[in-house]
Amino acid sequence: MLSSRLFKRFSSTVTIKPTPSKTHHHQPIPSSSFPSGYLLTGIYAGVKKKAGVLDVGLILSTSSRPTSAAACFTKNAFKAAPVIVSEQVIASNVGRARAIVVNSGCANAVTGKQGMEDAWAMVKETDEILPPPSASGSSSHETLVMSTGVIGQNLPISKIISAIQSQHENSSTRSLDNDFAAWERAAKAFMTTDTFPKLRSRTFTINGREYKLAGMDKGAGMIHPDMGPPSIGPLHATLIGCIMTDAAVSPLSLQRALTHAVERSFNSISVDGDMSTNDTIIVLANGASAPDGAPEIDEKTDKEAYEVFRKELTDFAIDLAKLVVRDGEGATKFVTVTVKGAPTYEDAHRIASRISTSALVKTALYGEDANWGRVLAATGSVPLSAPLHPNKVSVTFVPSDGTTPLPVLVNGEPEKVDEERASEILSLEDFEVLVDLGGGDKAEVARYYTCDFSYEYVRINGDYRS
Amino acid sequence: MLSSRLFKRFSSTVTIKPTPSKTHHHQPIPSSSFPSGYLLTGIYAGVKKKAGVLDVGLILSTSSRPTSAAACFTKNAFKAAPVIVSEQVIASNVGRARAIVVNSGCANAVTGKQGMEDAWAMVKETDEILPPPSASGSSSHETLVMSTGVIGQNLPISKIISAIQSQHENSSTRSLDNDFAAWERAAKAFMTTDTFPKLRSRTFTINGREYKLAGMDKGAGMIHPDMGPPSIGPLHATLIGCIMTDAAVSPLSLQRALTHAVERSFNSISVDGDMSTNDTIIVLANGASAPDGAPEIDEKTDKEAYEVFRKELTDFAIDLAKLVVRDGEGATKFVTVTVKGAPTYEDAHRIASRISTSALVKTALYGEDANWGRVLAATGSVPLSAPLHPNKVSVTFVPSDGTTPLPVLVNGEPEKVDEERASEILSLEDFEVLVDLGGGDKAEVARYYTCDFSYEYVRINGDYRS
Question: Do the chains contact at A460 and B275, CB–CB below 8 Å?
Answer without folding.
Answer: no
